[in-house]
Amino acid sequence: MQLQSDVCIIGNGAIGKVAALGLAQIGLRVTLLCGTASPASGAADASWDVRVFAINHVAHALLSSVKVWEAMHAERIAAVDAMDIKGDGAEQAGHLVFDSYGARTGELAWIVEDANLNQALDAALKFASNVQMVHGRAARLRTDADSAQVTLENGDTLKAALVVGADGAHSWVRHQCEIGMDYRSYGQRAIVTNFSCEKPHRGVAYQWFTAEEGIVALLPLPGERVSLVWSAPEVLAQRLLAEPLEQLAQRLDHYCAGPLGRLTPLQPEAVKSFPLALIRPHAITAPRVALMGDAAHVVHPLAGHGMNLGFGDVASLLKILAEREPQCDCGDARVLGRYARARKEDILLMQLATDGLHRLFSSDFTPLRVARNLGLNLVNRLPVIKRQLISHALGRQS
């Protein structure tokens, strides 16, 4: 079997699915290669997904434009109205607070479960007339002057003017294009799980930067619930994973007993972890190929913007393809060059910011610890700087 389309997307995650819906919406024929299995989403289940995303305003607008935001379970989405960030130390700890009033917006972000998002995406794809979903494993990618062709393990071929690699940090597409990358492990694992809290969180996302124990974040979920993202050094992470969740909750009392009270693991208990690394591909395009999402960049989750960076890729590619000259097809070198230039600054800034903050707050050097705490306090007293930081966090141009 041979399928032909304008764009072939490889990847079964949210980034690839949103890209498929958006490209179909601007009139392009899309093939979405989803892998060998398409597991059912658990968003309708009573349990809470331990993997959540902080969706900024750009991502919100993109999801709304493809009719996905309204299709999600609204009662399972929590608005972030403020961010409370603390440095390490006791009385000398730095403190920085952002709120929606100071940002002159209704919400700073929204916390969305992975399962809730993917269930809405899967439902939307069923009604997308310009999207052909294919299940299988890619075996070879070949490009020429006029098109790209993906050959599957079963011998079927997918031919398109453009191949989009949205297939994650270990991207098969990136490897096929022989795009090199810089990789550095952070020596940390992200521990994610959910708790109920004794006191109402009032829409506040809390984050504690520590040198010894990494970065602890508690994000608001609907009701009196919070989602933990603990970027812990590898040795500590293994200890946390071996402990009962009740013991993990007791460890968190040190940080959140004041604002949130006692934490209780949500039932059924669930915890996941994943290694943290910085991945910088040497390019995000190749002849007739564009990378997006984790295939194009992997950053530390301390700012909560890894998924938003991927949605920014989608929004840029949609705009560039919609505005391309009539004589240019989707994989034209000039079109791909515009995409690479459009994403270069945003990706570089996020890489520098997250990597720089990680380096800054992972050091136990006393003068540096004092300086960073003073820095947090100083920024907290400078409204102009705070507004610029909030603007970037929302996804706006400052």
Description:
- It is a single chain.
- By secondary structure, the protein is of the alpha+beta class.
- It contains eleven helices and 19 strands.
- The protein folds into two domains: 2-39 and 117-182 and 277-361, FAD/NAD(P)-binding domain; 58-113 and 186-276 and 364-394, D-Amino Acid Oxidase, subunit A, domain 2 (D-Amino Acid Oxidase, Chain A, domain 2, 2-Layer Sandwich), CATH 3.30.9.10.
- Strand 18 and strand 19 (289-291) form a beta hairpin.
- The radius of gyration is 22 Å and the shape is globular.
- The termini are far apart.
- The model is unreliable at 38-44 (pLDDT under 50).
Shape: globular
Q: Unreliable segments (pLDDT under 50, ≥5 consecutive)? A: 38-44
Q: Radius of gyration in whole Å, from Cα? A: 22 Å
How many individual helices?
A: 11
Q: Structural class, from helix and strand content?
A: alpha+beta
Mean pLDDT: 91
Beta strands, count: 19
Main beta sheet: 8 strands, mixed
- The name CATH uses for the topology of the largest domain is FAD/NAD(P)-binding domain
